[in-house]
């Protein structure tokens, strides 16, 4: 921030000096116009005018090079990599150990047998195939088969139906988006090494449906009376997981391709923190209905995302890890993304346009929910019971 302020001071100084010199040049030109012998006055003042013109050009060049909207300028690069300003409620702390438990639900199941990891369960039941997935695509991919594929699909349909019942508008967006779209939601340049990009078209595969849903109204002025706008989408998501070398290499937890149902809100600025509580409750309700033990964590300053001002992570209990693992992240990005995407609102016909606030959350990651169901609902005989809420979607109550 000190460097941003230093460069901003240089930028403003260059602009101010350029304007001062222009005023001086205009004053001298006016003197020539008032002189009795204009030719003699012009001849006498020409060296001074030329020197001022050179100085103006120099300061304007400096200002252009430092301008925050100049592509590649040092100030712009620093600003593009500066995260959102955190809300006062965000706890201090350098890593996840400083996150605060907001609430918990359910108790981890006590098994009267040795529980298995989802990948061992899935391979034994012949509903997961990692070997053939690796043959097709390499590491960090999986194949779902038979009742496993049907359960996975049922989870997505269940999530989407619940979102629609809560007033969200379903969107089926493109999964390839432009560089500008990625930048507007904070994915670039901070996370460029985690994205799949097609160099020929300069299009990116989306890492989350948050990207197209948030940018859907880029460069628009919305009617304030239409807010909040609540959008949802069930899409595949693609991430290189470049920063996760050697982490969760087995199973479905961390893959290059996965699916999730995303929730996005656009709100008036004064409503966004209340909206975050409601959005988070929408995601929590899914875990409650599936009867999966979970907790809601308020992220500290050192663990929060680049675009977010305040974030809750929902973590579900995984018996194989003997730990809670993230299954959703619900964030209020305030006006950070809206500023980049130029998403504004007008409260009434004569009002000044102002930036909206954007929020997003997973409701939920489909693959990780499948993992949680497989591990928490596993039976002694190696079968997997289906949660009651999903049976109308699966048509069966057990995989065995």
Structural commentary:
The protein has 400 residues and is α+β, with helices and mostly antiparallel strands. The chain folds into 2 domains: 2-80; 96-399, 2-Layer Sandwich (BirA Bifunctional Protein, domain 2), CATH 3.30.930.10. Helices cover 39% and strands 22% of the residues. It contains 12 helices and 18 strands. The chain has helices spanning 2-34, 38-66, 74-80, 118-124, 130-137, 146-165, 179-184, 210-215, 272-289, 336-341, 366-376, 391-394, and strands spanning 100-105, 128-129, 143-144, 169-170, 176-178, 197-198, 203-205, 220-223, 229-238, 257-267, 294-298, 310-318, 323-332, 343-346, 354-355, 357-365, 384-385, 398-399. An 8-stranded mixed beta sheet has the order 1-11-12-13-16-10-9-4. A 3-stranded antiparallel beta sheet has the order 5-7-6. Strands 8-14-15 form a 3-stranded mixed beta sheet.
């Amino acid at each position: 921030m000190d460097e941003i302020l230093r460069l901003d001071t240089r930028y403003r100084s260059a602009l101010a000096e350029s304007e001062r010199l222009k005023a001086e040049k205009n004053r001298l030109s006016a003197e020539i116009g008032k002189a009795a012998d204009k030719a003699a006055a012009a001849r006498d003042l020409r060296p001074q005018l030329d020197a001022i013109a050179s100085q103006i050009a120099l300061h304007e060049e400096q200002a252009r090079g430092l301008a925050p909207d100049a592509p590649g300028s040092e100030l712009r690069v620093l600003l593009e990599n500066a995260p959102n300003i955190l809300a006062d409620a965000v706890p201090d702390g350098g890593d996840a150990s400083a996150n605060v438990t907001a609430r918990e639900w359910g108790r981890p199941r006590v098994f009267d047998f040795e529980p298995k990891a989802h990948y061992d369960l899935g391979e034994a039941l012949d509903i997961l195939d990692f070997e053939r997935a690796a043959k097709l695509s390499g590491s960090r991919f999986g194949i779902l088969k038979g009742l496993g594929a049907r359960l996975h699909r049922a989870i997505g349909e269940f999530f989407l139906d619940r979102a629609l019942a809560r007033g969200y508008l379903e969107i089926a967006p493109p999964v390839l988006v432009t560089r500008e779209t990625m930048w507007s939601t904070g994915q670039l340049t901070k996370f460029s090494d985690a994205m799949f990009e097609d160099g020929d078209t300069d299009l990116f595969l989306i890492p989350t449906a948050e990207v197209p849903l948030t940018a859907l109204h880029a460069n628009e002025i919305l009617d304030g009376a239409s807010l909040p706008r609540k959008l949802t989408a069930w899409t595949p998501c693609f991430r290189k997981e470049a920063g996760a070398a050697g982490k969760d290499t087995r199973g479905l937890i961390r893959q290059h391709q996965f699916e999730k149902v995303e929730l996005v809100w656009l709100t008036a600025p004064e409503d966004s923190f209340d909206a975050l509580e409601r959005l988070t409750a929408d995601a929590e309700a899914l875990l409650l209905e599936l009867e999966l033990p979970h907790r809601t964590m308020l992220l500290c300053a050192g663990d929060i995302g680049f675009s977010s001002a305040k974030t809750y992570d929902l973590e579900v209990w995984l018996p194989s890890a003997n730990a809670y693992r993230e299954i959703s992240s619900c964030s209020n990005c305030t006006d950070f993304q809206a500023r980049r995407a130029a998403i504004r609102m007008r409260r009434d016909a004569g009002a000044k346009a102002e930036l909206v606030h954007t929020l997003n959350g997973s409701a939920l990651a489909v693959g990780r929910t499948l993992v949680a169901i497989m591990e928490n609902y596993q039976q002694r005989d190696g079968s997997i019971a289906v949660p009651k809420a999903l049976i109308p979607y699966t048509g069966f109550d057990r995989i065995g």
